[in-house]
Amino acid sequence: MAKILLLLAQSGFQTKEYGDTRHVLAHAGHMVMTASRDGGIARSTADEGVITDVALADVHATDFDGVFVIGGPGCLTHLDNEETVRIIREAKESETMLYGAICVAPRILAKAGLLRGVRITGWDNDGKLEAICENGGCIHTAQSVTRDGRVITANGPMAAADWGEVIVTALSEQSL
Questions:
Q1: What domain range includes position 100?
Q2: What is the pTM assigned to this prediction?
Q3: Residue 108 to residue 27: CA distance in whole angstroms
Q4: Which of 5, 75, 93, 153 is the most exposed place for a label (fewest CB within 10 A)?
């Protein structure tokens, strides 16, 4: 059983991306924890409250087997910060930990230079992801889910369950 951390916007995380991903991971027997900027209750785009387990400042990525950023309109306000970058940098530096993001959240990681040389996908309804990838040194794919080594990204809510399945598969490969 792996221990997975999902980073949520304090307000405005995408309900389906969180719910479907969490369900797939938990159903596969993995422990799923949540973190948000301030801890406490995070609110989804549907105004659903989720009690998070920890504030971003108190997260040590090395306590987990995977760290993933959930998208939604609030993530660019609540997760595009030094703490999120620190957490994903720790995951990247571990050399074994899985990490990634879904929907608009891969933009945060690309902007921070944490996806250099990696193929990724993400929300691109505004047509800006290609330029963000170019500036961040990563390669945009048009796939719904893209896995490149330890990095797993997805393009939005409709891909959330598949994203969770790819994470589960990657975790099982690591345990072999």
A1: 3-174
A2: 0.97
A3: 28
A4: 93
